[in-house]
Amino acid sequence: MSRASVPFRVFRLCTNIAALVVPAAVLTLIAYLLWRGLPAMETRLIFGEADPVQAMLGRVPVWEGLWPACAGTARLVALTVLLAVFPGVGCGLYLAELAPPRQKRCFDAAVDMLAGMPSIVMGLFGFMLILFLRRTLFPGANTGLLLAAGCLALLVLPVLVASTREALNAVPHSLRLSAAALGLTRTQTLFHICLPAAVRGIMGGVVLAMGRAAEDTAVILFTGVVISTGRSGGLLDSFEALPFNIYYTAAQYQDQQELMRGFSAAVLLLGISCLLLGAAHALEAGFRRRWNGRGQ
Predict the structure, then answer these.
(1) Quick check: 205 and 163 in contact, CB under 8 A?
(2) Domain-embedded: residue 175
(3) How would you write the chain as a 3-class SS string?
(4) Which of 19, 52, 80, 222 is disulfide-compatible with 127, CB 3.0–4.6 A?
(5) Which tens digits make up the pLDDT trace of 20-71?
(6) pLDDT for residue 276 is more than 80
(7) Position 14 in a domain
(8) 72 pLDDT exceeds 60?
(9) Which CATH number belongs to the domain containing residue 101 in this structure?
(10) For residue 87, what pLDDT is reported?
(11) Which of 84-93, 108-117, 201-210, 283-292 comes out lowest in average pLDDT?
């Protein structure tokens, strides 16, 4: 064995060990959460003493279960995506297809700054916005679901912009040339060729944004989340969410049973995040297979 190969072998061993750290840490975390949370998973954990059907229909409040937090998380994610999809996809479309080089650099810098914004700062921004509105235009303004979704929408905008831009940039140039040869205008090529070709990549970004919105705690901590409301309210009302429920339980639990409920809530949130990330991965893989000639 030559002396030159010794450093390479050491380097390879170190990289192999480093590569094993990430999956080992993830598997250990998941196994621990399942070990602590699965034993407490039961219908009563979700609905308490309330009838499950009546609780899901919103006819009876649920004071001792996680159903309001699950429903609040779903409403928060749906409203966040509804607010963020149009500006996020539109900005990505503009940067990929229409922006001149100077504007593209300015927009890229703004998107990068927004992507690096700590979520706690975004939550404080929403809280200060409510204080400003109270003192100026709307004295009755208060934190609630709409404010939290708006702040989360700003937080996930960079994900949507980047995924849309990359999906459009990945569309083969031959498609654009073929469309031009057939006499299609630039607008027709964009809406009838490029966007349909990039839709899977864009949808992957949307699902990633949903996962990001579902797990954030710092933003909603200042914008209207509470530990117990009993049932879902309106857009301007306070709401429950699984991330805050986990945070509150970890900080304030009184006995072992309450702690186990917190672990069960963490398992539920982990399952939601895994489903969203799995959907994003499937959409992204399908998009790449399609345009690399290995799919349909």
Answers:
(1) yes
(2) yes
(3) CCCCHHHHHHHHHHHHHHHHHHHHHHHHHHHHHHHHHHHHCCHHHHHCCCCHHHHHCCCCCCCCCCHHHHHHHHHHHHHHHHHHHHHHHHHHHHHHHHCCHHHHHHHHHHHHHHHCCCHHHHHHHHHHHHHHHHHCCCCCCCCCHHHHHHHHHHHHHHHHHHHHHHHHHCCCHHHHHHHHHCCCCHHHHHHHHHHHHHHHHHHHHHHHHHHHHHHCCHHHHCCCECCCCCCCCCCCCCECCHHHHHHHHHHHCCCHHHHHHHHHHHHHHHHHHHHHHHHHHHHHHHHHHHHCCCCC
(4) 222
(5) 888 898 899 889 888 888 887 777 788 878 888 888 887 888 888 888 888 8
(6) no
(7) no
(8) yes
(9) 1.10.3720.10
(10) 92
(11) 283-292
Tokens of 57: 């229909």
Residue 20 covered by a domain: no
- Residue 107 lies in domain: 41-291
